[in-house]
Design a protein that fits this description.
This protein has four helices and four strands; from the N terminus they run ααβαββαβ. With about 110 residues, it is of the alpha+beta class. The relative contact order is 0.22.
C-alpha cells in the first residue's frame, strides 16, 4: 500500500534531518539553510530561490505550482516566477517552511 503524500514528506523530512551517528559523536550541527551562493541558475531573479540542496521531493511544486517548476534533466525544483500577489507570496512562504531540506531561500535580490 503506497504512503500518502503527507506521510511520505514527513518520513523524508525525519530521515534527512536526523544526524548520523558519526556526526553526533563529532558534535556536528546540521545547517541546511538555503544559500544564495548555491542557487540554481534557472531561478528567476528575486526574493525566492532554490539552491543545490533540493532533493526533488515535489513539495514546493505541489504547494506553489504557479511559482515552482522542475528541471527534468537535473531532477530539482527552481523558482520560475516570483510571487506577484499575497496568495502566491503565502504559498511560496509555505513551500519554504515545508521544504524538508531547507533548499528554498527568501533572501534573494
Amino acid at each position: 500500500m503506497p504512503l500518502s503524500p503527507s506521510l511520505n514528506h514527513y518520513l523524508v523530512e525525519m530521515v534527512l534531518l536526523m544526524p548520523t551517528p558519526a556526526a553526533i559523536l563529532r558534535g556536528d550541527k546540521r545547517s541546511n539553510m538555503a544559500d544564495a551562493a548555491n542557487r540554481y541558475p534557472e531561478n528567476t531573479a528575486g526574493k525566492y530561490y532554490v539552491d543545490n540542496q533540493c532533493i526533488d521531493c515535489d513539495l514546493c511544486r505541489e504547494t506553489a505550482p504557479d511559482n515552482f517548476k522542475r528541471n527534468d534533466d537535473g531532477g530539482y525544483s527552481f523558482v520560475y516566477k516570483q510571487p506577484e500577489n499575497p496568495e502566491e507570496e503565502a504559498r511560496c512562504k509555505e513551500a519554504k517552511e515545508g521544504c524538508p531540506v531547507e533548499a528554498i531561500g527568501d533572501n534573494g535580490e
